[in-house]
Amino acid sequence: MGILNINDDSFAGDGRLDTDWALARAVEMVAEGADIIDVGGESARTNRAAISEEEELARVRPFLENFSHAMRAARPRTDSQVFPPLLSLNTWRPNVVAGALAAGFDILNDMSALPDETNAVHCATIGAALLIMHSKGEPKIAHKHVTYPDIISELLAFFDEKTEKAILAGVRRESLILDPGIDFAKQAPDNLRIYRELEKLHVLGFPILLPVSRKSVIGRVLGIENPQDRDAGTIASIVAGCLRGASIFRVHNVSAAWFAIRASEALQ
């Protein structure tokens, strides 16, 4: 899953407020091996104020509406690649999801932690998959002091509740994906334990997305402040995730991730 930020304040410094650039970058990501393009108009950074719903829609809708046309120029890296790539919408506000329904997307990457069934109902309406991310509290607000007696037990209980809510709202069971929410309302030891014990989440029976790219926990472990310098640590995290059964990797450097995943598969 290639990360495509149509904003100018991504923590990784890789976004632009430019639809033409975003469409061209999506074509590049396909050539680099992306099976999914995850587009977001608002940074998840907690040291930035939330933009308006109208502004977020104004950033993402032109991309969504022109995505299929742009893919005519795309060429997949391999014959086994998902092509055309699936289109993921990364947002958390139901009004933005509703405003983007007509433009179309295949996956809703919901970073709200599904506080109610509204976004699940939207997904059920258009037949989109729903990616449920674990977190605590409202998005765009730092939750640096949240602690858990046992982060794995917390994740199991959380996902058990949220997947049931989504299914009751009409989302098909086979259309659900779980995201343990690395760096969201978690401390470094929590994040590292998730990496180590990811296999324990397979009991839930859903595919797992591992959002490892350039995360703060990598910077903390390696002493690297600039997120753009964390790609080596990202590759190590991808390999660890492959060995523990993660299904999807959300990344900035698609080509490097593609090589890491192919190498891990060969080793296994």
What would you say this structure looks like, in words?
This protein is an alpha/beta fold. Helices cover 41% and strands 12% of the residues. It has helices at 19-32, 53-70, 94-100, 118-126, 151-168, 188-196, 216-222, 231-243, 254-267; strands at 2-5, 36-40, 86-91, 107-110, 129-133, 176-179, 209-210, 248-249. The protein is globular and about 45 Å long. The model has no long low-confidence stretch (mean pLDDT 93).
Mean pLDDT: 93
Query: Could you name the CATH topology?
Result: TIM Barrel
Largest beta sheet, briefly? 6 strands, parallel
- Give the H and E element order: EHEHEHEHEHEHEHHEH
What is the alpha-carbon Rg in Å? 17 Å
Hey, roughly how much beta strand do the residues contain?
Answer: 5-15%
Pick out the low-confidence regions: none
What is the 3D form?
globular
- Indicate the CATH class: Alpha Beta
State the distance separating the first and last CA atoms. 21 Å
Q: What structural category do the secondary elements indicate? A: alpha/beta
The strand order across the widest sheet is 1-2-3-4-5-6
Helix content: 40-55%
Q: Give me the count of strands.
A: 8
CATH superfamily: Dihydropteroate synthase-like
Tell me the count of domains. 1
CATH architecture: Alpha-Beta Barrel
Total of DSSP H or I helical runs spanning 4+ residues: 9
Please tag this protein with its features.
alpha/beta; 268 residues; 8 strands; 41% helix; 12% strand; six-stranded parallel beta sheet
Topology summary:
Layout: E1 2-5, H1 19-32, E2 36-40, H2 53-70, E3 86-91, H3 94-100, E4 107-110, H4 118-126, E5 129-133, H5 151-168, E6 176-179, H6 188-196, E7 209-210, H7 216-222, H8 231-243, E8 248-249, H9 254-267
Parallel strand pairs: 1-2, 2-3, 3-4, 4-5, 5-6, 7-8
